[in-house]
Design a protein that fits this description.
With 82 residues, this protein is mainly α. It contains 1 helix and 2 strands, in the order ββα. The chain is 39% helix and 5% strand. A two-stranded antiparallel ribbon has the order 1-2.
Length: 82
């Protein structure tokens, strides 16, 4: 392979020397619209934003960790009393 045949990342694919590359032409390269938290008029359920859902999951993990640590502290205090 000749060096001039290797596509450069700085040049647009249309100007690349390799005509078989299909970068930039497909719909998969377009950014997806970001979903937001929307509420339906008559319902209590809504579609959650993925970031909001991730934050809620991290918060639940943190709360579970804190409960576990508090139980360990209580157990160690009880052992020290004995």
């Amino acid at each position: 392979m000749i060096f001039s045949e290797i596509p450069s990342f700085n040049t647009p694919p249309e100007f690349s020397s390799n005509p078989n590359l299909r970068y930039g032409k497909s719909s998969s390269c377009r950014p997806m619209p970001r979903p937001t938290m929307e509420r339906n008029e008559g319902r209590d359920e809504g579609v959650m934003d993925p970031v909001v859902e991730m934050v809620a999951s991290i918060r639940m993990l943190g709360e579970g960790y804190m409960r576990m640590e508090e139980k360990q502290i209580e157990a160690s205090k009880e052992i020290m009393r004995m």
